[in-house]
Design a protein that fits this description.
- The chain is of the alpha+beta class and 128 residues long.
- The chain has one domain.
- The protein has 2 helices and 4 strands, in the order H-H-E-E-E-E.
- Strands 1-2-3-4 form a 4-stranded antiparallel β-sheet.
- A hairpin with a 2-residue loop joins strand 1 and strand 2.
- The N terminus is likely disordered.
């Protein structure tokens, strides 16, 4: 039983450590990215910062065509809210039009649709 608890604890610590490391690496790498850069150059800089994240800790890209422009949006883990709910506000979107970086951040795509929920305060009543 004790071994199982230790194994679960180690797994949970490893997950949060992967998220923390990805966020730290992302913030260190992001100043290298500038609007107008080619998608391949941006991805070469930012994707390695996310490679330790599991599928549950990351978010996939999106793409569509609008007015003849191929739009791709890549989401990079840039924050962590420890409410145990993965939400949009934990990512920074990078928006490409026909392979060129046009926007960074949620303003260009209408803002995050999901946000972290506050963790309610725990009230403890002591009965004597």
């Amino acid at each position: 039983m004790c071994g199982m608890v230790l194994m679960v604890f180690s797994f949970l610590c490893g997950c949060s450590n992967a998220v923390g490391k990805a966020i730290s690496q992302f913030h260190a790498a992001r100043p290298q990215v500038q609007l107008g850069m080619d998608k391949g150059d941006v991805l070469r800089i930012l994707e390695p910062t996310q490679e330790r994240l599991s599928l549950r800790q990351a978010r996939g890209s999106e793409q569509y065509t609008q007015d003849g422009v191929h739009v791709e949006i890549y989401f990079f883990r840039s924050h962590a809210n420890y409410d145990k709910i993965l939400t949009d506000d934990e990512f920074t979107p990078y928006v490409f039009h026909d392979g060129k970086l046009q926007a960074i951040g949620w303003t260009a795509i209408g803002g995050p649709k999901t946000q972290a929920q506050p963790i309610p305060e725990q009230h403890i009543t002591i009965i004597r």
